[in-house]
Amino acid sequence: MPVGVATAQSRDMPYYLTGLGSVTAFYTVNVKSRVDGQLEEVKFKEGDNVKQGELLAVIDPRPYQVQLEQAQATLSKDEASLRDAKTILERFQALFKESGAVSQQQIDTQQATADELEGTVRNDQALIDNAKLQITYSHITAPVTGRIGLRQVDPGNIVHATDANPMFVITQLQPIAVLFTLPEDSLPTVSQHMKQNTLSVEAYSQDDQTKLATGKLLTIDNQIDPTTGTGKLKAVFDNNDNQLWPNQFVNVRLLLEIRKNSTVVPAAAIQRGPQGTYVFVVKQDKTVEIRPVTIAFTQQNLANIASGMSPGEIVVTDGQDKLQAGSKVAPRAQDASGNQAASGDSGTSGNPSSSDASTAQRQSRSHNASTSGSSSNANSGNSSK
Q1: Buried (b) or exposed (e) across 275-303, using 16+ Cβ within 10 A?
Q2: Is residue 179 part of a domain?
Q3: Looking at the structure, do residues 302 and 191 belong to the same domain, yes or no?
Q4: Domain extent at residue 313
Q5: Which tens digit of pLDDT belongs to each residue from 83-138?
Q6: Is cis: bond before 183, omega within 30 of 0?
Q7: CB hemisphere CA count around 380 (13 angstroms)
Q8: pTM value surpassing 0.85
Q9: Which residues pair with 23 in a beta bridge?
Q10: How far apart, in whole angstroms, are the C-alpha atoms of residue 208 and residue 249?
Q11: Phi, psi of 8 (to 5 degrees)
C-alpha cells in the first residue's frame, strides 16, 4: 500500500497562544479650540507626522491682546494707588510716634486701605496672566507626537470652545498597541510567565499568512468578561514601518516558551479514535503498527508528542484510511519540492514497467547475438564452397 511518511524529529518547539486582536492607537487626541475666534492659519497638511509642541493652527489673537493691554493699564493705575496708600500709612505711623497727632484708628484705617489696594493689584496681575493664557491658547500646538488625520475645519471659519466636533485628530502610531483576548483558563499561565521574563507577541494579517510586526506583552486587564469567558491583554509594538493601523484586525500569537528537545511529527500523522490519539508507525519490515501517543500541543502543522514516540521513528502522514495493524506499505517521503519520491527499494518492486523494460532489453540483446552468429556461419559455408 503506497503511503506518505515522515520521520519524527527532535527540535526546539515554540509554544504559542493565539487570539484575535484589534490595533488601537497608543494615544488618540481630539484637538479642539480652547478659545473662541476666527481660524487664521493651518500649519500642517493632512496626513503629516507632527512632533509634540509643534505649531498646528493659529486663531486670531488680537481680541486677547487688547484684553492684555487693558489689564496691564489697570494694573499700573492700581499700583500707583497702592504706593500712595503705603506712603500715607508710613507718614501716619511716624506722626503717631513723634507727637501723637494721629490716632491709632486712623493708622488702622489706612492700613486696611493699603491692604485692599494690594489685593486689587494681585487681581489685576491675575487678569494679565489670564489674557496671556488666552493668547497662548490661540496658538494650537500638538499635544503628542503622531499622525494627523483629515482636517475638519478650514481657515476662515469661526471656532468655539464649545464645538462638539474636533478641529482634527492626532493618533500616535509609533509605538502602537494591540488589544487581544485569550480564554480565562490561559491567564494564570500567562501571568506566571510574565513574572519570569518579557513575553514576545507577534501580529499576523487576517489570513494568518503574513507576519506584520513583533512586540511585547504589556499587561493583562484586571477583570474577565463574564459574557465570553475571556480576558483582555495589551501588547505594544514599535511599528517603525507603519504596518499596523488603528482599528485594524490582526491575529495575535503570544510566545509563552520554547520547549527544548521536543519530539515533533507533522500534525497530519495524528489520528483520533475511541481510545484517544494514535499514529501509524512504519517498522523495519515495511509493516505498520498502531501506536497510542499523547499530544502536548499542536502548533501550525506540527504536533509536539509528549509520550509514545521517540525521535527517528517513521510515521504515516498520508493514506491512513486504508491501513490497519500489520499492513504492508510502500513508504514515500516528500522531497524538498514537495513531490512524492520513493524511498528504499520499494520503487523498483512497485514499478512493473521498469522490470518489463529491463527484460525487453535483455531479450533484444540475446536476439541480436543469435542473429549475428547465424550470419557468420552462413558466410563461412559460402566461402568453403
Answers
A1: eebbbbbbeeeeebebbebebbeebeebb
A2: yes
A3: no
A4: 2-11+261-348
A5: 999 999 999 888 888 887 888 899 899 999 999 999 999 999 999 999 999 999 99
A6: no
A7: 6
A8: no
A9: 178
A10: 11
A11: -65, 135
